[in-house]
Amino acid sequence: MTDRYQTFTRTPLGKTLVKNLGLPDPLPLPRWIEGSPVIDGPVVFGAIGETDAGKAIQALLRDIGAAFSTANEGVASSEIRPKALVFDATGATSTADLSSLQRFFSPVVRQLAPAGRVVVIGRTPELSSSPEQQIAQRALEGFTRSLGKEVKRGATVNLVYVAPDAHEQLDSTLRFFLSPKSAYVDGQVAKIGIGPLVSNDPNRPLAGRTALVTGAARGIGAAIANTLARDGATVIGVDVPQNADPLRKVISRIGGTELLLDVTSVDAAQRIAAHAQEQHGGLDIVVHNAGITRDRRLVNMRTDVWDAVLDVNLRAPERITKHLVETGTLRDGGSIVGVSSMAGIAGNNGQTNYATSKAGVIGLVQALAPKLAERQIRINAVAPGFIETEMTAKIPFTIREVGRRLNSLQQGGLPIDVAETIAWFADPASAGVTGNVVRVCGQSLLGA
Length: 448
Ligand code: NAD
Prior knowledge:
Structural class: alpha/beta
InterPro entries: KR_dom, NAD(P)-bd_dom_sf, Sc_DH/Rdtase_CS, SDR_fam
Number of helices: 15
Number of strands: 13
Pfam family, one: adh_short_C2
Radius of gyration: 22 Å
Domain Ketoreductase: 209-385
Protein name: 3-oxoacyl-ACP reductase
Family: Belongs to the short-chain dehydrogenases/reductases (SDR) family.
Bound molecules: nicotinamide-adenine-dinucleotide
Strand order of the largest sheet: 9-8-7-10-11-12-13
């Protein structure tokens, strides 16, 4: 689906109208291209004191070859146009330290390059060592979410909370938030805990791993299959028998295997486990992407319509996860990713069934993350906002236009944006990332 309005705003007439009438001006967002650097411009780094996290961040910036300068007081009239501003706030121990945010960002934020990145790193508030520290750390959320709404021209602002002694786990998450892979992830908070230190090739982080992707024939699922394969995984693509042809096309391009089944069928979990064991010796990554909408207001909701949505979107992921974990088909150290939705967070008119199912996916993550940690299996979810797919193409024009524009980036996301977020979750180097729900919504203005 093309965004015709966005295309129009790039024409001379469009540019004039946007400027004179103050219309939305959605900058086309660059996406990551294989072989390109994590970040293609200078980085300005600031911090509250010297911390272990700060050292780890600077080591990473050197590792990815970023030209970076440090400026605790910002760079007021510098000629550089930073591509990213990275601020280590883990050293904030009381609210007095919050002044550093204004001192660092205020002079430099205007200089941020188009599609720039702002990443603030904090200490997980609940794991603070004093109430004063917890208050200051929690305050970072308000700062980042507001700055996300202020920065323009495709820039994003995100907050990463890191647990004490988990600073060595920062790499995969910072790579994601600094690069164009996170183009449509804005105003989000990610949490990193302690996990085993995994060092892998960041260009092929999933080499040697097997990933199951449900609903892989088209849309977001096809993008997930392609992206996980790009990162080195062997992909098992699942979809309904009616979609055999498109599924075959996706899988033949990436060299995985296909499995035609309805995820709601009684033996779906058993068939998936048998296929994974026989063809691949087990599984490392499971992505529950298959999903449907059957929108009706509750007064008109038939039982079969309600059940169909709950069955595909929630009960199937729950049942399949249980079986794959209990049978050991999903190996220790594996990663499960659920696909929730903004509707599951904010609710939506006509979507009581869908929103129930998608909020349930968040429940699945929260319920299982602590239990699965015993086997070092991680579970996270993405919550897409408006993504350009066949599903959203069916939405009536005016509602579709509103959905597209009502976010900080003033445009819909692409399936690749959801896929890149899932690839970050699936990366074994994200060993400390579990129990997270990250919205891929361009910082949608719709909230809970
Ligand atoms: P889509 O309709 O384009 O693709 C969904 C795929 O899942 C299809 O190939 C379909 O055949 C498959 N599928 C459906 N039911 C199945 C079943 N019972 N068994 C096996 N496969 C089945 O949808 P999409 O837009 O790519 O959405 C993918 C996921 O993202 C869904 O879970 C959806 O709820 C979620 N999501 C999408 C958006 C969006 O804006 N497109 C927003 C939020 C969440």
